[in-house]
Amino acid sequence: MAGSLRTQIYLTADQRRELDAISSRQGSSLAELIREAVDEYLEVRPGDLDDALKASFGAARHAVAPARSEWDRRKIAHH
User: Which end of the chain has less neighbouring CB within 10 Å, N or C?
Assistant: First the structure.
């Protein structure tokens, strides 16, 4: 693991118990499991989601939303 940095984190007892169980089932170390989770998080950061939302704004400009009264009628009809 060239270039790796040692980092200490605090986990709740429940988080640690769950992570230990997952790493045991997968046959991987706790450190590897956490690195994988961090990598997945970094792939879809909240900023990326904001950018996607901004880029899609106005994409359905011809769509027509039902009036609030229609939503209320549909809700009552489904109960």
Answer: C
Residue 75: pLDDT band (50, 70, 90) is low
Give the pLDDT score at 49.
75
Q: Domain for residue 4, yes or no? A: no
* Angle value at C-alpha 55, between 50 and 59, nearest 5 degrees: 125
Is 24 domain-assigned? yes
Q: For residue 47, is it within any domain?
A: yes
Any idea which residue has 């994409």 for tokens?
59
Residue ranges making up the domain that contains 32: 9-57
Contacts of 30 (CB under 8 A, 6+ apart): 19, 20, 23
